Amino acid sequence: MFNNSYSFELSKKLYSKSVIFPRKRLLFRALELTPFENIKVVILGQDPYHDEGQANGLAFSVPKDIKIPPSLKNIYKELNNDLGIPIPNHGDLSKWAKEGVLLLNSILTVEPHKPASHRNMGWEEYTDGIIKEINDKKEHIVFILWGNYAQEKGKYIDESKHLVIKSPHPSPFSARKGFFNSKPFSRCNTYLKENGIGEIDWRIE
After folding, report:
1. pTM higher than 0.85, yes or no?
2. Cys staple from 64: which of 90, 183, 186, 200, with CB 3.0 to 4.6 Å?
3. Given 47, 65, 82, 136, the catalytic residue
4. From the first residue on, what is the mean pLDDT of each consecutive set of 10 residues in the chain (205 residues)?
């Protein structure tokens, strides 16, 4: 549903110019692992990790053999605090994606070691369209918006038919300003259960 000609033409243009992350085969992985009909939750990131081997097509996620980034470490700490789930020893969030959690970056590509280097190149228009389509065509979706950048996307979400959970970003620079103890995972599952939707199993294998 989301892999339209605009996204393919944009990706073709960007990948032809330089080395960028994630690798092209992983570009639409979030949408492949969490197809439209399976979406229960949207966690919105900004852009991919920019060091070699980190970006795997899922917001906040890294491959199992890559060191867990600081923001994800803090997400795991809050997961443990919120639900008592043991802190995982790797950063691969594909289990969440298969549970119905769309781990969507607003900007889908990045140049090596240059965070936000593909801002305003066209991805925002595409991913804003995804958010609008989910908002319009589905009900009782949980949108988890961490940090100011993600929260700007809240303007596309109808809070009368969806749950929006907002807090500061899990980055070490802001996690202690309200991210910790925000309990997004239990709040999410409570809402899903109240609306007759299967809860997310937040455990990481």
Report:
1. yes
2. 90
3. 47
4. 81 88 96 97 96 96 98 98 97 98 96 93 95 98 96 96 97 97 98 98 94
